């Protein structure tokens, strides 16, 4: 019997994290790397959030916090949900954790028994399936195709629900595709779920504010109020406010579920750092002009990269409506050989060869359970994107 627990035997390191680490190591060797693999804003945290944390520290707010979050933070989350999503939650229907990832992990640990199934529309964030497996559950992928805008189809949800189905995950705007479901599409999903009262919904809204082209974000419980009693909204301050390192996520849902999540959180987290909570209160209650400037910058970057991709033969990409990723189809290059003599027999081989020969990091679509694609992030400077596009074009031109 091995010393390491069986439950993590099939849980790999995140592919995006792995590629970013490779770029970091190569850069340390003096190689001019262009990292387009990281899903992290390149902006600094808003000054008013940093100042709030500073003031809290000077005031002595440095002791153990409540496990579920300080009252002022929960009130800020409550106000945000009412203001932006028109959803009313009591304070005991809200809890916090060290990032949205920990919220999801705590939720699965609190609700899944061995063999319970979780429906995950794919392409999907890498960690969903691994978190489900870690909690003893079984992830069930629901492929979503480019022809349908990478939106999960109601008929596929219905066909995949079994007696063991406990959760359906939804993530809009989506990582890695940037897909955004509209009111009609969400209503169609809700109509299916109305026939299955034992299936709950985890709505990962972490990219909520990062929406472009005058599109509108809607969360499922907002469109289908009847499902609010079995929906968990997951969000945080990392993406919109460039606060990834502050590690603060939150969720809102039925009181009994929140209580169960708090039990797990009391054992694996014991509450988010007080200074992070103070910064999050300032971000959530503060002005949105800073976020709006970031959104405009992201859209400019997105449009630039899309225009450059149109000039590269054999690749194509739908226009993402949100988040800060491009999910690029590279099927025309599978089976070819790179200029460096590497056989591109998969999207994984493509992104590895791109990194080794042109020093650009990206993430293979297979990491998100959809091939042959690659994901790049445009949450980086325009100068880096220009260099990255030039190198990608040179790589593609060199293939034969």
Structural commentary:
The strands form 4 sheets. Strands 2-8-7-6-5-3-4 form a 7-stranded mixed beta sheet, with helices on both faces. A 3-stranded antiparallel beta sheet has the order 9-14-13. Strands 1-12 form a two-stranded parallel sheet. It has helices spanning about 15-30, 45-60, 70-85, 100-110, 125-135, 155-160, 185-195, 220-225, 255-270, 275-285, 290-310, 345-360, 380-400, and strands at about 35, 95, 115-120, 140-145, 165-170, 200-205, 230-235, 250, 325-330, 335, 345, 360, 365, 375. It is globular. The chain has 2 domains: about 5-45 and about 290-400, Alpha-Beta Complex (Aspartate Aminotransferase, domain 1), CATH 3.90.1150.10; about 50-285, Aspartate Aminotransferase, domain 2 (3-Layer(aba) Sandwich). Strand 13 and strand 14 form a beta hairpin. About 50% of the residues are buried. By secondary structure, the protein is of the alpha/beta class. Helix 4 runs parallel beside helix 5 and helix 11 packs parallel to helix 13. It contains 13 helices and 14 strands.
């Amino acid at each position: 019997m091995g010393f390491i627990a069986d439950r993590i035997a099939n849980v790999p390191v995140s592919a995006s994290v792995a590629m970013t680490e490779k770029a970091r190591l190569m850069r340390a060797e003096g190689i001019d790397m262009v990292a387009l693999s990281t899903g992290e804003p390149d902006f600094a945290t808003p000054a008013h959030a940093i100042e709030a944390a500073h003031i809290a520290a000077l005031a002595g707010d440095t002791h153990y916090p409540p496990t579920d979050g300080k009252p002022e933070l929960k009130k800020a989350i409550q106000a945000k949900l009412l203001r932006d999503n028109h959803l009313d939650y009591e304070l005991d229907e809200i809890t916090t954790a060290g990032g949205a990832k920990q919220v999801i992990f705590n939720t699965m640990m609190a609700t899944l028994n061995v063999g319970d199934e979780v429906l995950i529309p794919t392409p999907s964030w890498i960690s969903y399936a691994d978190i489900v497996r870690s909690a003893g559950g079984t992830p069930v992928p629901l492929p979503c195709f480019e022809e349908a805008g990478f939106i999960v189809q109601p008929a596929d949800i219905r066909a995949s629900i079994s007696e063991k189905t406990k959760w359906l995950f939804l993530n809009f705007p989506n990582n890695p595709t940037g897909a955004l479901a509209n009111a009609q599409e969400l209503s169609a999903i809700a109509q299916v779920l109305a026939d299955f009262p034992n299936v709950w919904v985890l709505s990962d809204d972490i990219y909520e504010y990062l929406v472009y082209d005058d599109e509108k974000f809607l969360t499922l419980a907002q469109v289908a109020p009847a499902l609010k009693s079995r929906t968990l909204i997951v969000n945080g301050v990392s993406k919109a406010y460039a606060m990834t390192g502050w590690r603060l996520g939150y969720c809102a849902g039925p009181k009994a579920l929140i209580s169960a999540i708090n039990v797990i959180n009391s054992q694996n987290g014991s509450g988010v750092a007080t200074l992070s909570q103070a910064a999050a209160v300032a971000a959530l209650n503060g002005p949105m002009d800073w976020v709006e400037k970031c959104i405009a910058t992201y859209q400019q970057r997105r449009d630039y990269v899309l225009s450059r991709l149109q000039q590269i033969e054999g690749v194509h990409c739908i226009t993402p409506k949100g988040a800060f990723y491009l999910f690029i189809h590279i099927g025309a290059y599978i089976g070819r050989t790179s200029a460096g003599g590497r056989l591109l027999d998969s999207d994984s081989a493509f992104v590895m060869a791109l990194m080794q020969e042109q020093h650009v990091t990206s993430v293979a679509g297979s990491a998100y359970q959809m091939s042959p694609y690659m994901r790049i992030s445009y949450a980086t400077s325009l100068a880096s994107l220009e260099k990255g596009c030039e190198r990608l074009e040179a790589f593609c031109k060199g293939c034969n």
